[in-house]
Amino acid sequence: MNRVLKGLLLPLLVLAGWELCARSGVLKAESLSFPTAILAAAVKVVQDGSLFKAALETFSGAMVGLAVGASVGIVAGVAFGLSRRLSQLMRVTTESLRPIPSVALIPLALLIYGYGVQMESSVVAFSCFWPLLIITESAVRGIEPRLIEVARLLNFNLFQRITKIVLPAALPRIFVGLRLAAAVSLVVAVTVEITANPMGLGYALIVAQESMRPDKVFAFIGWIGLIGWMFNASLLWAQRQWFGRMGNWAETST
Amino acid sequence: MNTRNGWRVWLASLGVLALLVGLWQLVAQYELVSPVFFPAPMRSFESLWDQMRGAEFWMAFQQTLMRMALGFVTASLAGVLLGALIGLSPGARAYIEPTLELIRPLPASAMIPVFVLLLGLNDRMIIAAIAFSSLWPVLLNTVHGFKTVESRLMEVANILHLSRLEMIWKIALPSAMPDIFAGLRLALTVSLILAVVAEMLAGVAGLGQNITLAARSFRSADLYAGIVVLGAVGYATNLILERVENHLLRWRGA
Amino acid sequence: MTTASARPVLSVENLDFTVGSLNILKNITLSVQEREFVCIVGASGCGKTTLLRLMGGLLAPTAGRVQYRGQMVTGPQPELAVVFQDYGRALLPWRTVAGNVELALEARRVPKAQRADIIHDMLSRVGLAERAEAYPMQLSGGMQQRLQIARCLAQAPQVLLMDEPFGALDAMTRQALQDEVAGLCSQAGVTVVFITHDLEEAIYLGDRVISMDKHPGRLSDTLDIALERPRHQLTTREDERFLAYRHRLFNLLPPGH
Asked: Is B156 on the interface with C (CB under 8 A)?
């Protein structure tokens, strides 16, 4: 219990100090607001449904992008993992595209799709593609060679080999990649909304800022953090549930 | 794979990229896709070439890079210093680490509206936002690096009666370097992203502003050129950091 | 039993060490004379490593005391050098072989101009002079342990506390290092406390072998080793007296240790 108390001391002190400074006028409440007001705003956005609406919009953009980006990433990762030749030939191309920051694609997506979910999910897809490509390729490469031999012995064709051996064997690590990509998808979605797309939590942030409502700004930031944390925690829980007992069964001891 | 073979594979890979670009060029030339969205690569290269011959481009380039540099360097110095202090003190860690973990999942760009409220839409806001967001990866990783110094080495330091400063400089800091650099690499990526996003929001001169304006005026060749430039900035800065890291940590490859 | 004529270099009096409700060491009393090579043997888990760490000041006793040249040992000090069993973790991976030895010289505030010679001397003694610019990770286990020993000798210690230093090495390397250490220590004139679970190693190396029981750790017997030096891997180990000592110790220690 002592540990929990110690951990809480600093945030509580900061919050208390903030509250005092704002109320006493030392801090400009118009720019920074204060904890009790922020809490009130946080509750209000739940009550008036704006949080739910915004979160839904962000999630739709993020999840569609994740689905597209991750699937393409996994397919490419499997291909690169199975064929070293292919991976090497594509090396320069992938290494040229990878350094492009996803935010740089926002104006392009805007140009092609205009405002809306498509624009957002396309940028998210680009961001989610890379981690899955890299992790899947590495996972496929790291599959216990014994299993590949078994597949050969059983005379599996390529499709069977992939679906019955490669994918299941690489699955635990691919799932870790998915978890990472999921976190990325939320962050990128919010970023796209902050920058350009008038929907979702990021846009709610901008609206709050433009209407000079710092209490709402911090409230939404808090909610974004909490939602992100809950999302990651549930994915971690899912991972433990599905893969916990089985361990990394298919990997060679490296 | 010997180096001569490596060269050939790399060339082949470059050839694949050239092939793809060539294909795109043909597709664009025969207008199989809308030239507004997918301009011919030649036009983008021309645009890039033209831009680079003009002073405006380099002004924007310099602006963006300067903001990135200021934010990144400030954040790195502060992050390493604070991280060392926190990481070396189990007492401090008990109070501070939980708070750090709370901040970790927040999307960096979400804090930008706060900075806009505080500082307005200008250079100062951008640099402050970059510095703030780049701080966390460096801080968190540095704390981890100093926290996990091999206990055996600390015992050796005690036996040798090394002063606290000596212990930090000769044992803790070198030991934490790999973690510190991991944090720096993350911070570098974050600072580029934040620079672009903040520029887009603030509407100040810079590479981010360039591509936003290009998209708005449907100058797709300029837009693609701008994306390439941003990718190149990401690539180059990362390369420099990597080189520094490999030099300082050359004992790792031994 | 040797009579303690001169003041012992290191002495332990009525030492107890308890963690929580677990009594790890009970009533340990022993003293080590100048230039003596004392080996402590015991089954795994009898607390030998704990005893060594207490002697080195890395742990504080629950009761009793450790004294170095008459002064209470309240913390670690360079005069009591410790050679750890997990040598890999006790070396600085970011410094070269020479750099690792230099660390001890930096601690002793040896002027820079003099360091190179001392480092070369130390490395030659352990046979690593050729690898001075290599990094620890490039060395084999035996070489890494030698490096640690070289660094410890560079501390100009009075006492060398060695915690099963050859436990993680293969048999051949172990034998080579046994002879090297015996030679190095007599050459350097240091007092040695050497922990091992290997009976034969203890007899081979020691002037005196002390055996420990476990649960809780306490001293059970002391054997003076009257074998001549320098010792020889083949002949000494076949000596009648060696075998007698071996029998004696074997019966003292619990079966299957």
From this structure: yes
Give whole-number Cα distances, C104 to A218, B131, B160, C55, C115, in Å: 53, 40, 7, 20, 10
Please give chain C's pLDDT, 257 residues, in tens: 445 457 899 999 999 999 988 889 999 999 999 999 999 998 888 889 999 999 999 999 999 999 999 899 999 999 999 999 999 999 999 999 999 999 999 999 999 999 999 999 999 999 999 999 999 999 999 999 999 999 999 999 999 999 999 988 888 889 999 999 999 999 889 999 999 989 999 999 999 999 998 888 888 889 999 998 889 999 999 999 999 999 988 887 766 54
- In this structure, how many other beta carbons lie within 10 angstroms of the beta carbon of residue A64? 19
ipTM of the complex: 0.88
Q: Look up tokens 């961001």; give the residue.
A: A127
Residues 56-75 of A with CB under 8 A from B: none
Among A31, A100, A107, beta carbon nearest to B234: A100
Structurally, chain C folds into a number of domains equal to 2
**Whether the bond into C216 is cis, omega within 30 of 0:** yes
Q: Does A101 touch chain B if contact means CB atoms closer than 8 Å?
A: yes
Strand partners, C163: C195
Distance between CA C167 and CA C197 in Å, rounded?
8
Neighbours of A223 (CB within 10 A): 20
CA distances, C49 to each of C37, C133, C191 (Å): 17, 32, 18
Spatial CA neighbour of C11 closest among C36, C29, C37, C26: C29
Quick one: C161 and C207 in the same domain?
Answer: yes
What are the residue boundaries of the structural domains of chain B, listed by start?
Answer: 1-33, 38-253
Look at phi and psi of residue A58 and say left if phi exceeds 0, alpha if psi is from -120 to 50, else beta.
alpha
Strand, helix or coil at C195?
Answer: strand
> How would you classify the pairing of strands C63-68 and C37-42?
unpaired
Residues C254 and C173 placed together within one structural domain of the fold: yes
Domain-located, residue C124: yes
Query: Residue A253: its pLDDT value, please?
Result: 37
SS3 C134: coil
Q: Do residues C116 and C148 share a domain? A: yes
* Residues C129 and C237 reside in one and the same domain: no
Interface with chain B: mutation pick from C52, C77, C92, C139, highest number of B CBs within 10 Å: C92
Any idea which residue has 């180059």 for tokens?
B236
Cis previous bond, C230, omega within 30: yes
- Burial class of residue A226, CB neighbours in 10 A (0-12, 13-18, 19+): middle
Do A102 and A127 meet the contact criterion of CB atoms below 8 Å apart?
A: yes
For residue A132, the Cα-to-chain-centroid distance in whole angstroms is 12
Helix (H) / strand (E) containing C63: strand C63-68
Among residues 188-227 of chain B, which lie with CB inside 8 Å of chain A? 189, 192-193, 196-197, 200-201, 208, 211-212, 214-216, 218, 220, 223-224, 226-227
A101, two tokens = 């920051």
Q: For residue A254, what pLDDT is reported?
A: 34
Degrees to nearest 5, angle at CA A72 with A66 and A73: 80
Q: Is residue C192 part of a domain?
A: yes
Domains of chain A with bracketed CATH = 37-243 (1.10.3720.10)
Domain with C163 in it: 17-79+157-257
- Give the pair of three-digit tokens for residue A167: 């994918």
- Superfamily of segment(s) B38-253: MetI-like (1.10.3720.10)
CB count in 10 Å sphere of residue B114: 22
DSSP state at residue C130: G
User: What is the three-class DSSP state of A3?
Assistant: helix
The CA distance from B104 to B96, in Å, is: 13
DSSP H helical ranges for B30-122: 41-53, 55-88, 90-103, 112-119
Cβ density class C182-220: b for 16+ within 10 Å, e for less: bebbeeeebbbbbbbbbbbbbbbbbbbbbbbbbebbbbb
